[in-house]
TrEMBL record:
The keyword Protease does not apply. Belongs to the GTP cyclohydrolase I type 2/NIF3 family. InterPro entries: DUF34/NIF3, DUF34/NIF3_sf. The lineage of its organism: Bacteria, Bacillati, Actinomycetota, Actinomycetes, Micromonosporales. SUPFAM superfamilies: NIF3 (NGG1p interacting factor 3)-like. It comes from Phytohabitans aurantiacus. The keyword Metal-binding applies. Homohexamer. This is GTP cyclohydrolase 1 type 2 homolog. NCBIfam families: YbgI_SA1388. Keywords: Metal-binding. Gene3D superfamilies: NIF3 (NGG1p interacting factor 3)-like.
């Protein structure tokens, strides 16, 4: 375990995480032997059961299970039940969150790769970083496409969810440069505008910020499910662990997006 933790900390240094974040080893014995790792976006009951089914010794999750303080981990609580289930079955838990977001390569690099973006650079570079670190990525498509076609490409390239991919902007707008940010990215709308990109793909976009962004002349927007924008990183993470450590890896395709039904009776506006 200590060797795996050390390698993950080297790849995604805890010092790169935001001050409010909680990353690193959450539970598990440092001297335990790790044979198989399950890579997940969320540590939830469904992915815990998956870990038990594949006989994983360690779960590496993107989202923290214990992000905010708790006063009890009793098995009568939601998070307490997860923790008890893991401990009783000798399954450790490690989290790489905002430190994986800014890493190079990191979460947004994997998302950019799904769209085939080239010549990548950070959307918001990390302070005092000359190594390519930073939030989000900006790149160029292999060839110009319309916003409608890019939306279809994104829907096909990302894991399927009930949420799907929706876009804001003229469907026939030509897109050559694209910014992406895995996870909730509405706090970087101004960065996408300042970068002069044609479109920005992220998750969890809200009505009023989007309306004001478009009214201010910002780039077209694509809004995908939060889980779907971060799931591609798991493939890179698993490949890295296999290449650097003597462990087997399994990537979870359990859709942990909370939205499960999508129904529309209205045709997209021309």
């Amino acid at each position: 375990m200590a060797e795996v933790v050390a390698e993950l900390d080297r790849r995604y240094p805890p010092a790169w995480a935001e001050s409010w974040d909680r990353v690193g080893l959450v539970l598990g014995e440092p001297d335990a032997h790790v044979r198989r790792v399950l890579c997940v976006v969320d540590c939830v009951p469904e992915t815990v059961e998956e870990a038990l089914n594949v006989r994983a010794d360690l779960i590496v999750a993107h989202h923290p299970l214990l992000l905010r303080g708790v006063s009890s981990v009793a098995p009568t609580t939601y998070k307490g039940r997860i923790i008890h289930r893991l401990i009783k079955n000798d399954v450790a838990l490690f989290v790489a969150h905002t430190n994986a977001d800014v890493a190079d390569p990191g979460v947004s690099d994997a998302l950019a790769a799904r769209l085939g973006l080239r010549d990548l650079r950070p959307l918001r570079p990390a302070d005092d970083s000359g190594d390519g670190r930073g939030i989000g990525r900006i790149g160029r498509l292999p060839a110009p496409v319309t916003l409608a076609d890019l939306t279809l490409t994104a829907a096909r390239a990302l894991p399927s969810t009930a949420w799907g991919v929706r876009a804001a902007g003229p469907p026939d707008r030509i897109v050559e440069t694209v910014a992406v940010c895995g996870g909730a990215g509405d706090s970087f709308l101004a960065d996408a505008t300042a970068a002069g990109v044609d479109a920005y793909l992220t998750a969890d976009l809200r009505h009023h910020p989007v309306s004001e962004h478009l009214a201010g002349g910002g780039p077209a927007l694509l809004d995908a499910a939060h889980w779907a924008t971060e799931r591609p990183w798991l493939d890179d993470l698993a490949a890295y662990l296999r290449a650097t450590l003597d462990v087997e890896t399994v990537v979870s395709d359990v859709d942990t997006d909370p939205w499960t039904v999508h129904q529309s009776l209205k045709e997209p506006r021309p």
